[in-house]
Specification:
By secondary structure, this protein is an alpha/beta fold. It has a single domain, classed as HUPs (Rossmann fold, 3-Layer(aba) Sandwich). The protein has five helices and five strands. It has a five-stranded parallel β-sheet with strand order 3-2-1-4-5, sandwiched between helices. The longest helix has 16 residues.
Length: 151
């Protein structure tokens, strides 16, 4: 029996417990294909992001440590990647990236392709009840586990 294919995408920097929750769900579903945003895409953000090679290495190490498998990571040069044309059974997203998954399915429908099952994982909350986010970590509010660093 073939394993199901799950897609997930993001910048993954800094890698935090919210990302790990998404990855955990994806790996529960089957073979995982991770779209890691290219440097060009990452530079469109309003904050500095580590270069692609460094982000990829950190993500690979995390996946080996947390899930005991070798990561299948490809460079994501646009918000949709191969999800608009290749077969995937699932796409795992956060509430923030859910609209992108809906757009992927809209593009697939326009191309006569079946939709991908969208699995939306709730935000992982920090100690203060607000979502863990890369921005909050970069701003020094919380660490990657959501522990408050300043009041």
């Amino acid at each position: 029996m073939t394993k199901e294919k799950a897609a997930i995408g993001g910048t993954f920097e800094p890698l935090h417990d919210g990302h790990k929750a998404l990855l955990k769900k994806a790996y529960e579903l089957g073979d995982v294909y991770i779209g890691l945003t290219s440097d060009a895409m990452a530079k469109r953000r309003y904050r500095d992001v580590m270069p692609y090679g460094q982000r990829k290495q950190i993500l690979e190490q995390c996946i080996r440590r947390e899930f005991g498998v070798q990561a299948n990571i490809f460079e994501l040069r646009d918000p949709y990647g191969p999800a608009i044309s290749e077969h995937f059974d699932h796409i795992v997203v956060s509430p923030e990236t859910y609209p992108i998954a809906e757009k992927i399915n809209q593009i697939r429908a326009n191309r006569g392709l079946p939709s991908i099952d969208i699995i939306k994982i709730d935000f992982v909350l920090a100690q203060d009840g607000k979502p863990i986010s890369a921005t909050r970590i970069k701003n020094g509010e919380i660490d990657e586990h959501g522990v408050l660093l300043r009041k």
